[in-house]
Amino acid sequence: MLGSVISVTYNGRRFLPDLLSSLEKQTSPRTEIILVDNASTDGTSEFVERSFPNVRLIRSQENLGFCGGNNLGIRASRGEYVALINNDTIPDENWLAELIAEARVSPDIGAVASKVLFLRPFVQVTLEVETFNPAAEGMSSDDRDLGVLFDSASKFESCDYDKPIFKDK
Question: Does residue 16 contact residue 85 with C-beta atoms inside 8 Å?
Fold first, then answer.
C-alpha cells in the first residue's frame, strides 16, 4: 500500500459525501481511505458503510478528539505514506499524488503539507446599527460608542458552516 489517507469526524456526516467522493477520485495508486468516527450520533458510520463501502471505517467508542482520532487511524494504516485531512475539505484529484511525489524527493523529508484554500469565499456583510454611549446615558462611566459585537461564538442563521472567520479591514 503506497498511501493511507485518514480523516477524523465527529457528527460531520454532512461533509462526508464531498470529502469521500473526492478521495475516491485521487490519482495516486494503491491508496486506502480511513475514516475514524469519533463516536458520532448523527448516523455517520451507517452512512459511510452504506454509501462508501471502499472506505475503511474505524468506530471509536468515545470521542478521542482530533489528535486521538488521527492516532487511532495512523495505527490502523497500512500505507508507506500517511496523509491527514480534515473532514470538511475537498482535495484536488492530484492532491495525494503530489504530496507523495514531494515526500519522495529526499529521504531527509519527514513531512509535507499542501496549500489550503477556503472552499467558499468570504461573504461580505454590511451591518448598520444605531450605537449608544453608556456614559452619555448615565448607565456607566464607559465612554465608548457601543453597537453590535461579532466574535467566534457568533452564529449565523441558515449558514451551513459553523466556523465563522472574521477578516480585519
Answer: no
What's the pTM value of the predicted model, to 2 decimals? Answer: 0.75
pLDDT in 10s for each residue of the chain, 169 residues: 899 999 999 999 999 999 999 999 999 989 999 999 999 999 999 999 999 999 999 999 999 999 999 999 999 999 999 999 999 999 999 999 999 999 999 999 999 999 888 776 666 777 788 888 989 999 999 999 988 877 767 776 666 665 666 666 5
d(CA 41, CA 43): 6
DSSP single-letter state for residue 11: S
Asked if residues 162 and 87 have their Cβ atoms less than 8 Å apart, the reply is: no
For residue 164, the SS3 value is coil
DSSP 26-60: --SSSEEEEEEEES-SSSHHHHHHHH-TTSEEEEE
Identify each DSSP E strand in the chain by its residue range: 3-9, 31-38, 56-60, 81-84
